[in-house]
TrEMBL record:
It catalyses: 2 1-octadecanoyl-sn-glycero-3-phospho-(1'-sn-glycerol) = 1-octadecanoyl-sn-glycero-3-phospho-(3'-octadecanoyl-1'-sn-glycerol) + sn-glycero-3-phospho-(1'-sn-glycerol); S-hexadecanoyl-L-cysteinyl-[protein] + H2O = L-cysteinyl-[protein] + hexadecanoate + H(+); 2 1-acyl-sn-glycero-3-phospho-(1'-sn-glycerol) = 1-acyl-sn-glycero-3-phospho-(3'-acyl-sn-1'-glycerol) + sn-glycero-3-phospho-(1'-sn-glycerol); 2 1-hexadecanoyl-sn-glycero-3-phospho-(1'-sn-glycerol) = 1-hexadecanoyl-sn-glycero-3-phospho-(3'-hexadecanoyl-1'-sn-glycerol) + sn-glycero-3-phospho-(1'-sn-glycerol). Exhibits palmitoyl protein thioesterase (S-depalmitoylation) activity in vitro and most likely plays a role in protein S-depalmitoylation. PANTHER family: CEROID-LIPOFUSCINOSIS NEURONAL PROTEIN 5, CEROID-LIPOFUSCINOSIS, NEURONAL 5. GO terms for cellular component: lysosomal membrane. Keywords: Glycoprotein, Signal. GO terms for molecular function: hydrolase activity, acting on glycosyl bonds; palmitoyl-(protein) hydrolase activity. Residues 1-20 form the signal peptide. The lineage of its organism: Eukaryota, Metazoa, Chordata, Craniata, Vertebrata. Pfam families: CLN5. Belongs to the CLN5 family. This is Bis(monoacylglycero)phosphate synthase CLN5. GO terms for biological process: aerobic respiration; lysosome organization; oxygen metabolic process; swimming behavior. InterPro entries: CLN5 (IPR026138).
Length: 331
């Protein structure tokens, strides 16, 4: 073999190696993208302000009462329209529901409610603030579990669901309580959207939501692992808010996009996109923003998603956005 032939062979092997590495990197992208967990929950920023205080009657540190091992704890499925306390059944007519779990001690007669929701309301978890003094969008998107004494029977049953679905022992309840606290410390941010390739049953899920109903599903699965037998007399449906897109592209984290002059146009495009969804707009501004949102999402087929503290571009496709109320059977 001549030196020229040897050089060609080496170059070919190097090229094949690069191609193989590229294919491996492509294949390593997992769908749906796994939700990122953390070692601990960070303190919230004072800029983030809740219209309604988070968990006003619950323990500030998220502690859950200890139950006697011999106690029998009833488990209740709770569901009501979002913001039912303010708007009644209005959002229920659109099947936009909030989910929680209730518990009742047979020994003490005490009732408890457990739910997982946004620290600073849904809008702040779905879209960021654009602060004049900061170039990058500012997110107030933490969510957490809230455990408090009492079950407001009227709140849950008037326009929703209050149904006993099982029983566990006090010992099993205490094991679940420890799991909830661990889950709450590591899963810290709320995600509104579920992103799929299309509405068909076998479509690819790009991103899963992380919201109140997902917390309920995780808790039901944990209770089942601990030995609970759960059953419902009615169909167990839950609200899902879908975006539909082609394969997403990861654009990078905040520093990679907003700290690089070379990506100035991308950074400005992301800011412009989120400006459409800014809070506290007048009625006229809101109407104009909805027209702009239609242009961006439907006509331009573009959406920027913030997930795992990274920005992703979604090439949108029909039907673009959909709210469903679909069955998720008890485990």
């Amino acid at each position: 073999m001549t030196q020229t032939e040897l050089t060609l062979c080496l170059n070919l092997l190097l090229f094949l190696h690069v191609v193989a590495q590229f294919r491996n990197n492509v294949q390593q992208q997992q769908w749906p993208v796994p939700y990122r967990r953390f070692d601990h929950r960070p303190a919230t920023d004072s800029y983030c302000d809740a219209l309604y205080p988070f968990c006003p009657t619950g323990d500030r540190d998220g502690r859950i009462p200890y139950m006697r091992d011999t106690d029998v704890i009833s488990i209740y499925r709770l569901q009501t329209p979002v913001w039912e306390f303010k708007y009644g059944d209005l959002l229920g007519k659109f099947r936009i529901m909030h989910d929680a779990i209730g518990f009742s001690s047979s020994e003490t007669g005490a009732n408890y409610t457990m739910e997982w929701y946004e620290l600073f309301q849904l809008g702040n978890c779905t879209f960021p603030h654009l602060r004049p003094e900061e170039y990058a969008p500012f997110w107030c998107n933490q969510g957490a579990a809230c455990f408090f004494e009492g079950i407001d029977d009227f709140h849950w049953s008037q326009n929703g669901t209050l149904e006993k679905i099982g029983e566990i022992t006090g010992s099993q309840f205490n094991d679940m309580a420890q799991w909830v606290q661990d889950d709450n410390e590591t899963g810290i941010y709320y995600e509104t959207w579920t992103v799929r390739s299309d509405p068909s049953p076998n479509s690819t899920v790009w991103f899963e939501s992380y919201d109140c109903s997902q917390f309920v599903h995780r808790t039901y699965r944990k209770l089942t692992e601990l030995g609970a037998k759960l059953s419902s007399r009615s169909q167990t449906n839950y609200t899902k808010i879908y975006l539909y897109s082609g394969e997403p592209t990861c654009l990078g984290n905040e520093s990679a996009i907003f700290g690089q002059p070379a990506l100035k146009n991308l950074a400005l495009d992301i800011r412009e996109f989120y400006h459409t969804f800014r809070p506290h707009q007048s009625f006229i501004d809101f109407a104009l923003s909805m027209l702009e949102a239609y242009k961006k999402v439907v006509l331009d087929k573009s959406f920027y998603l913030y997930y795992n503290f990274e920005y992703w571009h979604l090439p949108m496709k029909p039907p673009y956005v959909q709210i469903t109320y679909e069955e998720v059977p008890l485990p």
